[in-house]
Write a structure and sequence with these properties.
heterodimer; A: ABC transporter involved in vitamin B12 uptake, BtuC; globular; B: mainly alpha
């Protein structure tokens, strides 16, 4: 069996186990298991609203998966997804609100420009947040896994305070900031669902990053530093740069996902809009084995589970936490190398550090 | 002073969890699932204590449940060759999800659960029984690690597993043992938090597992160092709680402080380690 077929069977096993888990949970937790199961699996496909929302969730998952994959290709673990998504979205919101004050940005073109500036600002902020962990790893050899997680957890609390404190919109019933100017909103492509043009941006990003990693010199430099930093040093590559740069890009991608959720879906920063997105993005990257192009189906799977769980909760008597259990289990399974390299090694292949 | 008393009561669960983390760290594994173990321990203790009305039975059964679950996790990780770090993270996520789902199932709510039949803990000078238990655990761990064959073999597993295997001993056995011990201690820590509050508050143990992990490293992976580090953390935490009242710091910032403090502590630890290395 060649590598591709092997990977595929690994994916199928994970899919099978996920489906089995959902079935078991529905049987255990629901008094109407069949109805719950049908809502779970087919609910997202029933109408345009559910389907569009599922695709919308896929978009954020794609960005999360890309973010973690790029960090991993550079040899780092980015566990700070939650905080980076939140910060990216929040800073983008703030920038948009600040720019919206001037008349320059209320026209169509001005709005687009304003949106781009705000999103870039958000990406920069979350990139710095994540890049700081990478920098600490470069200088002090602290584990960027733990520091990225700790920083992002702290940032979540701080942004929570900002949204419900100084920047809260007192006219709204929700805990949220004021809405960003309408000229900056992303167009909806599948009303009445929340799906916006952000999915197009996501797909373009996948293509760009996939090309960059495989087809350019700087992408190669980053991958090589991630695979073997000693070899990279002998090649004359700048390993110091490529120690924190993947983390920076990773944070920026997460921030892009957060900013696009704000500009496409919520049009404001709601408190805790990032909840779970960071971890699910990481799991998506794990399933995709950190390959940018495989992120798309993995993101779809996760979005399906999430939407299915929510629809089942609304239509039946189960809690939406079913999704959390299934997602955590998939997270665990996707990290098991018996689905990946183990059989490959036994058959005499080379061990590749992932 | 009040700050000191509150610090001591915060220190008890942190110390217990950190000693548990010490055992796993000495056997060669960094236990990421401390957070999940704390949560499972807290939840299972409250379930059994509420069901039987006795705090002690609750704690004992909580220990049984948490230890078995951590053993299960270890077996799965070993059998399926999962990445231990991811497995620990997945365990944390799973633990929080499961606790909420089971709580919803049994009590009908995913929020705070109060029990009518629980006796409040006896306190002396504002401290519960868990503080001496924690200090006793630290003391016992010093004896076990330094003076017993088990402890020496455990440390050997962490330093040089190949040497242990070459002597015919089973490294996995010691690692599993350390996980059982860790699960038990984390369960006691979780029950310390919950029984102190008198009811099950879902997120009361959030973040404590991570702090316990860093306390292990800050204490230089030695019991006495861990006691000192735990005390410093608890003091900082208690001080920030009082500062919230004094200086009107918003509640969300208070929640962020454990993580920030842990981060700063890690940075300082890395700087010190780097300085020591450069003297070799």
């Amino acid at each position: 069996m060649n590598q591709k077929a092997r990977n595929l069977t690994g994916y199928l096993w994970i899919l099978l186990i996920a489906v089995a888990l959902v079935l078991i949970l529905c049987l255990l937790l629901s008094s109407t298991p069949l109805k719950t199961m049908s809502l779970f699996f087919f609910g997202p496909l029933r109408n345009v609203y559910n389907f569009g929302n599922m695709l919308n969730y896929t978009t954020v998952m794609i960005f999360g998966g890309l973010a973690v994959s790029i960090a991993m290709k550079g040899g780092s673990y980015n566990l700070g997804g939650e905080g980076q998504i939140y910060l990216g979205g929040f800073i983008a919101t703030l920038t948009a609100l600040a720019l919206g004050g001037t008349a320059l940005f209320s026209s169509k073109a001005g709005g687009a420009a304003g949106a781009i500036i705000s999103i870039l600002a958000g990406m920069l902020a979350s990139g710095i947040l994540s890049g700081f962990s990478g920098w600490c790893r470069m200088r002090l050899n602290t584990s960027e896994m733990i520091t990225s997680f700790l920083l992002s957890s702290a940032v979540v609390m701080v942004v929570n305070y900002m949204i419900t404190g100084p920047f809260m919109d007192t006219t709204s019933n929700l805990l949220t900031t004021s809405k960003i100017p309408e000229s900056m909103w992303l167009a909806r492509i599948l009303p009445p669902s929340n799906l916006s043009t952000s999915i197009v941006i996501a797909l373009i990003m996948v293509a760009c990053i996939s090309f960059w990693l495989r087809g350019t010199r700087s992408g190669y430099a980053m991958r090589m530093t991630g695979m073997s930093s000693r070899f990279a040093v002998y090649c004359g590559l700048n390993t110091k740069l490529h120690t924190w740069l993947p983390m920076f890009f990773s944070g920026a991608l997460y921030g892009l996902g957060g900013a696009l959720s704000v500009f496409g879906t919520y049009h404001a920063s709601l408190r805790d809009f990032q909840s779970g997105l960071g971890w699910n993005g990481f799991a998506v990257a794990l399933i995709a084995r950190f390959e940018p192009r495989a992120v798309i189906p993995a993101a779809l799977l996760f979005a399906w589970i999430e939407s299915g769980s929510r629809i089942a909760m609304q239509g039946s008597d189960v809690t939406s936490k079913i999704a959390a259990i299934v997602q955590a289990s998939i997270f665990f399974l996707a990290s098991c190398s018996i689905f990946q390299e183990e059989r490959h090694i036994r058959q005499g292949g080379l061990k590749c550090k992932c | 002073m009040q700050v000191l008393a509150s610090a001591l009561s915060i220190m008890a669960p942190l110390l217990l969890a950190a000693i548990g983390g010490l055992f796993t760290q000495l056997s060669g594994m960094t236990n990421i699932a401390l957070e999940g173990m704390l949560m499972t321990g807290a939840f299972s203790t409250m379930v059994f204590a509420g069901a039987t009305g006795s705090n002690l039975i609750g704690v004992i059964l909580g220990i049984v449940v948490t230890s078995s679950l951590s053993l299960l996790l270890a077996l799965l990780t070993a059998k399926m060759k999962a990445n231990p770090f991811m497995a620990g993270l997945a365990a944390n996520l799973l633990a929080s999800g499961l606790c909420l789902v089971i709580s919803g199932r049994i009590y009908g709510t995913e929020g705070v659960v109060t029990f009518q039949n629980l006796a409040p803990l006896k306190r002396a000078m504002g401290q519960t029984v868990f503080l001496p238990v924690a200090l006793l655990a630290a003391l016992i761990s010093i004896l076990v690690i330094r003076r017993t064959p088990f402890g020496i073999h455990l440390r050997a597993c962490g330093t040089n597993p190949e040497a242990v295997t070459s002597l015919g001993m089973n490294v996995s056995f010691y690692r599993f043992c350390s996980l059982i011990i860790c699960g038990a201690l984390c369960s006691i820590a979780g029950s310390a938090i919950m029984l102190n509050l008198g009811s099950y508050v879902p997120n009361a143990s959030a973040g404590k597992g991570w702090i316990a992990l860093v306390i292990v490293f800050l204490g230089n992976i030695r019991p006495l160092g861990i006691v000192a580090a735990a005390f410093i953390f608890a003091l900082a935490d208690s001080f920030s709680n009082f500062a919230q009242g004094f200086w009107n710091i918003p509640a969300d910032f208070i929640l962020a402080i454990p993580y920030l403090f842990t981060f700063v502590a890690m940075i300082i630890y890395s700087i010190i380690r780097k300085k020591n290395k450069s003297f070799r």
